[in-house]
Protein: L-aspartate oxidase
Organism: Pseudaminobacter salicylatoxidans
Amino acid sequence: MTAGAHDLRGRPVIVGAGVAGLLTALLLAPEPVVLISRAPLGGDSSSMLAQGGMAASLGGDDSPDLHLADTLAAGDGLCDEEAVRRVVEAAPRTIENLQRLGVLFDCGPDGSLRLGLEAAHSRQRIVHAAGDATGRELVRALAAAVRRTPSITVLEGMEARRLLIEDGAVAGVLVVADNSAVALSTARVVLATGGIGGLYGDTTNPLGSFGQGLALAARAGAELADLEFVQFHPTALDSPRRPMPLVSEAVRGEGAWLVDEHGRRFLADTPGAELAPRDVVARAVWQQLAAGHRVFLDARQCLGQRFTDRFPTIASLCLEAGIDPATQPIPVRPAVHYHMGGIAVDADGRSSVPGLWACGEVARTGLHGANRLASNSLTEGAVCAEWAARSVAAAPARASSRLLPTALPPRPDASAIRPIVSRALGIVRDGETLREAAAALLPFAESDNAASDPAAVALMMTLAALRREESRGAHCRADFPQRDAQARSSRLTLNETLETAAGFADTSSPLARRA
């Protein structure tokens, strides 16, 4: 920390140092801002683990209209079409801006950007970096740019525990490091904290990413939306390592097949086959596993000895697990990968709480609907960071004149919550298990211990899943397999959730006993 809390009064505070947070800070320059990073800058973010690329209509046979159509189709009736159009039209220019900031995207021999194909895209429009290390390259370049920008004060090794609210609006952020708390006085906070994968046992996200931004916003009174929609990536490397290494969809884009232990290609008759929307592929893999089969991704015919050159990161992860992807099929299983729901925000990233913005995975912009189109997430984070930064810059700078509270909330720990969430909020759900989960989660959410914040987020997700009595996109209900004719977004506050969940409280429930 290079400045005292008093010196930072009134500056915008950005919580999170993945792609969305780093870009927001850079785009606010030269206005002085504070960037809070839980880990050393450039480490421990979901962005760092992103193998997939950024979707943008850059090819001669492509257009924003085609990108729009593919996104709407994947979103299964719940996308905000206006929001989608704004993002896909801005995406090509955003790629150019990232290149100016030093991001080294993969190019062909003629120097033009190399465009890949991923599931549910009708055109080759995925821009990658270092083959399968796009997120790492984005964070490298953006973190270096942040280091060079004197207007950005980076607080590393610190985490935000609470938003401080006065008269219904943001008044500050309670930041913690080494069990000591500091209250930063500000009327402008941007949450860019990533997703909720750490609430699950099988996840491709950092285990520390369990919805901290959602908890901060919810406890401040913000409205959250579409929390029931959790995307499971169909092809995580089936190994004991956590987070689970991802086997990028781009491998299937190169022609790899999903097969069982007998070599049977079980998706051959599915529209789109291995490149069907992720919810379709994830459920198909889950059904095979549930029936006692094993599932493998076979790239021997399409890539063979070229695998390492094309996907060096994945090849290294496979070899570490004792698998040579050039000569052996790769064992895979679904894992939680991305959260389509989040803090409900408007076109400028503003939440329902004055002074609070959100961008990246923690925000629900309306782009993804019920099922995210592959490689739209990094694009969304980069595009929406610009809009949020513009809105924050236009908002008045204020600092509270009161002495802000610094009582230290417990450090969050999701370990007690993971078994409940993994069972109730998996690929296929049912009302009875969800009600049991609500009863088990409520005491944790109402407590003042380490499980409280993760449980509050999980409880809101559970109630949203209970209320959606249909199967749509990534939300599949065994007891409501049909799609409702009315497509509608779900919205919740924490107070509403706690009141509703009290009706499910039953200490005799199996999940409550197991917890």
In short: The chain has three domains: 6-194+340-394, 232-336, 410-514. The longest strand covers residues 330-339.
